[in-house]
């Protein structure tokens, strides 16, 4: 008993490390840790904001309907590149779902994944998410090409990249909501 009292923190650390090696427990632990450390995304400074030079990006809704990103010209848009196998992507989805509930009719949301439609459907149904998910049919505009998942962009009405975030974040944070509200009030 004395051994346990002296070494309880070491035992917990070893147990945690062992759980990270077990496939069934690794992913939930990674998701949980990502949620713990997720903060509000920071904005790109005004002088460093790139302007999207091209909105031409062919996408497909999960029901097979083709969509072109150009429909978001002149609108505030959030673009999230993600995958169902990516723990940081999964970690930030609840905050996106809450944000989408409040801003879905004001902001264009694009959750883009290269995975098969059936796998994406199963994930959304299991989590009870209503997020608009798309599959890419062509390469995104140059300023939005990324090899990291998740990567999220927030575009202003005039096409400026206001947020360029790689990794998970808390998208339902009051600071990010203030940024969205400010962008929605801007005139073209």
From TrEMBL:
CDD domains given in the database record: TlpA_like_family
Signal peptide per UniProt: none
InterPro entries: Redoxin, Thioredoxin-like_sf, Thioredoxin_domain, Thioredoxin_ResA/DsbE_sf
Database matches in Pfam families: Redoxin
SUPFAM superfamilies in UniProt: Thioredoxin-like (SSF52833)
Alphabetic keyword roster: Isomerase
GO MF terms, alphabetically ordered: isomerase activity; oxidoreductase activity
PROSITE patterns named among the record's database cross-references: THIOREDOXIN_2
Residues in Thioredoxin domain copies: 30-185
Name under which the protein is recorded: Thiol-disulfide isomerase or thioredoxin
């Amino acid at each position: 008993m004395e051994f346990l009292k002296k070494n309880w923190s070491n035992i917990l650390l070893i147990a945690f490390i062992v759980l990270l090696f077990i496939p069934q427990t690794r992913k939930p632990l990674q998701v949980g840790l990502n949620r713990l450390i997720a903060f509000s995304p920071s904005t790109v400074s005004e002088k460093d904001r790139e302007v999207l030079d091209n909105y031409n990006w062919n996408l497909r809704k999960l029901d097979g309907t083709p969509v072109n990103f150009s429909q978001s010209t002149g609108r505030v848009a959030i673009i999230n590149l993600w995958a169902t196998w990516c723990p940081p992507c999964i970690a930030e989805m609840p905050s996106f779902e809450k944000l989408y509930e409040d801003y879905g009719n004001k902001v264009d949301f694009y959750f883009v994944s290269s995975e098969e439609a059936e796998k994406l459907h199963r994930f959304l149904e299991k989590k009870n998410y209503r997020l608009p998910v798309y599959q890419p049919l062509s390469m995104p505009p140059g300023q939005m090409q990324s090899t990291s998942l998740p990567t999220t962009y927030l575009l202003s009405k005039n096409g400026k990249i206001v947020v360029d975030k790689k990794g998970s974040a808390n998208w339902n944070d009051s600071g990010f909501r203030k940024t969205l509200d400010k962008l929605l009030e801007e005139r073209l």
